[in-house]
Design brief:
Elements (H helix, E strand, L loop, with lengths): L1 E8 L9 E8 L4 E5 L6 H8 L7 E6 L2 E2 L4 H6 L1 E4 L11 H11 L4 H14 L15 H13 L5 E5 L7 H16 L3 E5 L3 H7 L2 E6 L2 E6 L1 H7 L6 H9 L8
Parallel strand pairs: 3-8, 3-9, 6-7, 7-8
Antiparallel strand pairs: 1-2, 1-4, 4-5, 9-10
Amino acid sequence: MIQIQQLSKKYKDAERFSLSDVDLAIAEGEIFGLLGPNGAGKTTLISILCSLLKPTSGAFQINGLDYQNHKRALQQIIGIVPQEYALYPSLTAMENLSYFGSMYGLKGDSLKNDITQHLETLGLIDFAHKKIKAFSGGMKRRVNLIAAILHRPKVLFLDEPTVGVDVQSKTVIMDFLKKLNDEGTTIVYTSHHLNEAEQFCKRVGIIDHGKLITIGTPTKLIAENKDAEHLEDVFLSLTGKALRDYA
């Protein structure tokens, strides 16, 4: 589903590459976790795959479509759940979702029924006509997720989809994502919640300083690293314990 060849990115006036010669293949229907410390290159890579940034060099294809010749078609088959809330606070949940659905050409009873169904599934139907600014963080995360999948994307990109949410919201979100995957959606997921990634992802790649340093199933990576009992142990072994603060 996703083919990445020698992808690199260097921002203007930056001292080093944020991505450096990344090669990666993600299969159709896979849940792939992209893990790394702050500033490792995760969001840069996802932003390039979503055609929000241009790479400095290299290429990629999603479902056989490349960003240079098929950017519009590519954008129609992907969904993006950003780390920050991408919602209008003064609009209701229904108004937000109706607007985002219309951006994909969806309309009428079909769109309204899909929104209602998703709100019901994610426990938000009683708040459909409440303004987003009154929602808790977990509720906003769930509306954010619905906005990204109304057009039934083939690939869903998730950047920290459960950051800052309560346990109940996290459980509902993860169950919903598993259902989407069971229905055929390929998922690319980033998170600092390594226990969550260990349970959720079929494969993970650990990125640091713009380079993919290892790829494999969580079970395989744990088995290959001496003294590792969990994916977090593998992560710290490969990336170290030094703080990664940046501004």
